[in-house]
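Lab notebook, bench 4. The sequencing result for the construct came back, and we need a structural model before the next group meeting so we can plan mutations. Quick request posted to the team channel:

Model the 3D structure of this chain.
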Amino acid sequence: DGIRDVAVTGVQTCALPILSKMLSRLVATVRRLKGDRRGGALLLTAFSIVPLTMAVGFGVDYSRAMSLQTHLNAAADAAALAAVAPGMILQSNAESVAAARNIFNAQAALIDGYQDLQVTPVVTDGTSGGSGALGYLRKATVRYTVKSVNMFGEIMGARTITVTGSSSASAQQPPNVDFYLAMDNSPSMQIGRAHV
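Done. Here's the predicted structure in token form:
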């Protein structure tokens, strides 16, 4: 059955009697287990299969929830960047919020395995610098909450795992700066061009 009898010779004359006793007990235990046909290991294995299967199942459900969070975090990043894009920065807050919501929903529609998705884009305006002389500033934050649908956890009554995330972005419109160029084309500027 895969376990062979171990022949111990000369152990009685060993200088370490403790090692001899341990080795003798080990050999006796191996012989006893080899002849044991009561099925205790089978019973233990049968009882441990159910919790081990559930543990693996919960691990699969958790990894699916984390994968969903990764994909929705990417969608939230894209939505926040869309709200502060150069083409949107001078639009109204309502238009920026709508753009962020549309981008997020379009990317979330490509993912499955969730329910009850709630997304909240928030856009705030301000200026950078105390007097507003440094330019127009827009900040966008996209927060979401969703329930990842479990496959194995549903057997034990845990139908979903709640997943949340957020992303923020900000952009600044450069201030209006006037540049002046002064050109002097008077005859005094032609002195440097002496006749050569």
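Residues 1-15 have pLDDT under 50 and may be disordered.
Will bring this to the meeting.
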